[in-house]
Amino acid sequence: MAxxxxxxxxxxxxxxxxxxxxxxxxxxxxxPIPGANVVAVHEPSGTRYGGATRIxxxxxxxxxxxxxxxxxxxxxxxxxxxxxxxxQTTLGQSLTLDFVLREDxxxxxxxxxxxxxDAVLSASRTGARTVIGREEIDQxxxxxxxxxxxxxxxxxxxxxxxxxxxxxxxxxxxxxxxIDGATLNDVFGLSGTGAPGGQAGAQPISLDxxxxxxxxxxxxxxxxxxxxxxxxxxITRSGTNEFSGSVRYLGRNQDLAGALPxxxxxxxxxxxxxxxxxxxxxxxxxxxxxxxxxxxxFANVEYxxxxxxxxxxxxxxxxxxxxxxxxxxxxxxRTIAQDRYNYDAGTTDAFTDGxxxxxxxxxxxxxxxxxxxxSLRASYVDAQDDAGISRSVNNFDFSNRLYQFNSNxxxxxxELRSQLGNSAFNEARLVYTGVRDSRxxxxxxxPYVQIVDQxxxxxxxxxxxxxxxxxxxxxxxxxxxxxxxxxxxKGDHTVTLGTSNQFFRxxxxxxxxxxGGYVFDSIEDFASGDPSRYYLSTSLLDDPQPRAEFSAAQLxxxxxxxxxxxxxxxxxxxxRVDLPVFPSDPLNNPASEEAFGLRTDxxxxxxxxxxPRLGFNYAVNEARSTQLRGGTGLFAGRTPYVWISNxxxxxxxxxxxxxxxxxxxxxxxxxxxxxxxxxxxxxxxxQTAEINLTDEDFKFPQVWRTNLAIDQQLAGGFVATVEGIxxxxxxxxxxxxxxxxxxxxxxxxxxxxxxxAFAGSTSRTLNGSTNRDDDRFTNALLLRNTSExxxxxxxxxxxxxxxxxxxxxxxxxxxxxxxxxxxxxxxxGTSSRAISNWQFNENxxxxxxxxxxxxxxxxxxxxxxxxxxxxxGGRFASSFGLxxxxxxxxxxxxxxxxxxxxxxxxxxxxxxxxxSEDDIILTTGNYSDLDAFxxxxxxxxxxxxxxxxxxxxxxxxQNLLDLQFTQEIQTVQGQKVELTANxxxxxxxxxxxxxxxxxxxxxxxxxxxxxxxxxxxxxxxxIAGQTIAAGDVGKPVVGYAPNTRDNNGDGEVDRTDIFSxxxxxxxxxxxxxxxxxx
Length: 1078
Hints:
1078 residues, mainly beta, Immunoglobulin-like, Ferric Hydroxamate Uptake Protein, Chain A, domain 1, Maltoporin, Chain A, 22-stranded antiparallel barrel, six-stranded mixed beta sheet, 11 helices, 65 strands, globular
């Protein structure tokens, strides 16, 4: 009789946008059958993929549609046909189908067998990967409908917010997002989501348009590149031979969210609900044939309209968070602005942030002939978001600081897949992406104004005028990408020759303080027009608004051999070479070369990145019930181009920079840059400039990543996996300031770069006076490489795919995993600006940063998922998705409020933790209170007598449980109505004290106020009632303000009161929806 073997034969690499099949056809004696025909038919569309076996009996079918079901038939003259049915493929999988045929003696017709292969226990799998199909996407709880909500199903993923994804402890900017093989990153690097449109609150694509979704961490296929974090790879849906579509509505408002306890002015707590808001989605899909079996289309539209109130308000507003300054003070500021400066600052009323966007997508799939298939896809996102208004306990923005962030993204891709006989396959892809972002001021232009108010031991900041960084800010990005992969089959070898080339064009307008910026130390100073600090940037060129316009390219070529060494062992070895190129040069500033020996017109162009990789997959037995897999190799990412753009914008000959403390000028309320320049001309210090430089040998981020895993098939359809990933930095980022000179060393060994001597006991922190190498410049910031830093993750996971065998539990799938992770870095790279990446990198020595715990580390994470679907009654089906995400808190650092190293930068110096009262001069507060707090906090108590290390402290552990439920009701002719409910933070619904998500702003917390170091001139004087002796010289003069309030309403005053609780994530939220599918 005819035989069929479904086993681990050759399973060669698959396309980044498709699936593949391969195998061997033999006769009953095990001899290969050359010339046998294999045809795979994608049943929904009728698309046929065919080929013939080579001399060794092997065949390969590539470029297959993801999904199924497929029917695969093997035939040869004189032998009985064998057909395998019900076959499903997944994105990135190479399915192995082996056939054994017998001679046809007329006893039997064709043989039909149902077969399948596990996505994990597959010969095509080497490194860590999470595979997410259409059904899981539909069943995953999500309200924001973001890619991050799907990517979080990866055990090694984390994220600082619901729309941000970090992978394997790396910066989210180091991820690569691809849709249909087209790069859809925010390659410039300004969006926190890592995708274009993120700054306007939009996603790059509708979840209803996605067919399948992968997160790859260590793919040892050299075609995968552009990341040192993770590759988020999705493909869009395609039409079939049947017309189908859907219309959907999703909505929520303030009545579908829980209440949180809010502290009132009298110290009591009341449960506070969110203010009135709406969040609505309108979604539609339509797909079908244009020509049956030949041409298909798919279209999608999604519109979001959201109106979200700010969480904070003034006293008496009933807001969840109360700004502490009396409303009379705010009224006084508004009156002064109107009467003295003829500026309407706006109101202090509750503010609602409006967000809207529309996403459009169209796709065409065309079977040109039996050997060629063409796919065309275009998508467009138009997004707007109200921005510029932020309010909290200590900070308050008037309403006329509002600006609108506008973002438009057009992404197009054309892909041609060609079967070149039975021994070759080619895939060619051409991509264009255009992004247009701008910040558009909505009210009267006015200089940035910050008013500092100190009363009752608290510091409050009130802001009016236009944000310093939004007065002149827009960005155009254009990307053209061409990729071609030629695959050649020869015996047990599959060789890939490929090239991937990206060409970028950027046009960036960014002039901070274009209208000027002023800081006032009191309301009275604002009334008199007496600022304590003045900012201004003015053009030195003929163009009053010069832009950073430059081109870049990243050229890549690679070769790879996939070798089936034995029936159970597959090896993948390859080499990829990438070459970043910058054809455009910034302006030259001769003064930079004179001062620092570095030219401003030299950028790191032409520095090769070599990425050799070796992967393996070994089946311990022929049944593949136990599998070893892994690999080692280099992965090269892409530097956010804004870090390079900083050099094009800050050469010292394009802008003059003013940043003067205690300027002897009067406030100028004009938003005219020429008028501000006249004000600046009154300053005796004159103008200086900041320059940004890049080491000419600088290379884009690169890590050496090793992956080792074992997978074990268990009873009941379960698969257990233990997986380890280790990444070592080869090229990472580091910043240093060339224009500051060390003048001394503090008592604990901290380098001092200026005046940090005690300046008298004052409630204001010391800013310091930096010792500069060249007075023509403020800062000279150099971007360079470091090879320090590493990450590792160890994961244990148990998972089960749905069996769909008709039993009660046949529709149950899910997983449970625990991941232990460590991540270290020299610089976290969390900002787009060179000054911020240098300034806010908490460290012992700001100019020679040491490796420390990274902001992106997730030390412990338990991830549980459960999906279930049951059909009943002939017309009904119920399904749910449940996600448990339990993880250790985010790391943060203990710092000084003030400037402990004299570099003029405050709130970035790690604090010295006193071992005893004799270590410090305490001007405010009680040492016994300070000592008690230190002892109560392990990250402080364990490091007494030393400077705190970066990120040794943690926010509280967080536990989130999310649920999605769908009820399906069939109507007529296979159509159905679906009622959905997405419930986030179920634990908070059960108990108001559960499900809290805490954070620390900027990932740091002030322990002490810093006022300076005791010097010899202070001996014999009195500081805070203490007579200074010679032995006190060098001690830090500090203040301590203990927290005495129960800020979170848990009935205790403890460490949890230093954290802020997220307004949305910490409360339960419900979204209701209805979808009609036809």
